[in-house]
Design a protein that fits this description.
Elements: H1 3-9, H2 11-22, H3 25-46, H4 70-101, H5 115-119, H6 128-135
Helix pairs in contact: 3-4
């Protein structure tokens, strides 16, 4: 499929939906601020190693490609930021969850567990002995 031809054929639909695509940008920026503040304040208290924001968000390089139009470059920057932010937030959330209650979910049919639960060595659902070994007796009581 010729991408640019396809784009021109759907120009009106693109113009109509563009504001909807860009609408989440302000909430994303605010959430980015709050997540970063949360990590900056809480992770040192919890003695959790901080997640490097630049390893996730500042990897926006497609906008440097000469063959993209300015509008395509802007879109690439937005997608790079949004997807990088969600990876950054997911890692912070996973480390926080592990600190407070690193237990996998029950695993009902159709449920998709976060890969971070396996990567972060969460305790198995229902494994009381394993939980007590990892977190100690009376964790968070």
């Amino acid at each position: 499929m010729n991408y640019r031809k396809h784009w021109r054929e759907r120009l009106w639909w693109h113009l109509l939906t563009a504001p909807i695509i860009w609408l989440p940008l302000l909430p994303l920026l605010l959430l980015d601020l709050f997540i970063s503040l949360f990590q900056a304040i809480c992770f040192p208290i919890y003695k959790i190693e901080k997640v490097k924001r630049s390893a996730h968000i500042l990897v926006m390089d497609r906008n440097k490609l000469a063959y993209l139009t300015p509008l395509e470059k802007l879109g690439c920057m937005y997608c790079g930021y949004a997807n990088g932010f969600f990876l950054y937030a997911k890692e912070i959330a996973g480390l926080t969850e592990k600190y407070w209650c690193g237990i996998t979910h029950e695993g009902k049919p159709g449920f998709k567990a976060h890969p971070s639960q396996k990567d972060l060595d969460f305790s198995a659902y229902g494994d009381e002995a394993g939980f007590k070994v990892k977190y100690g007796e009376g964790h968070n009581k």
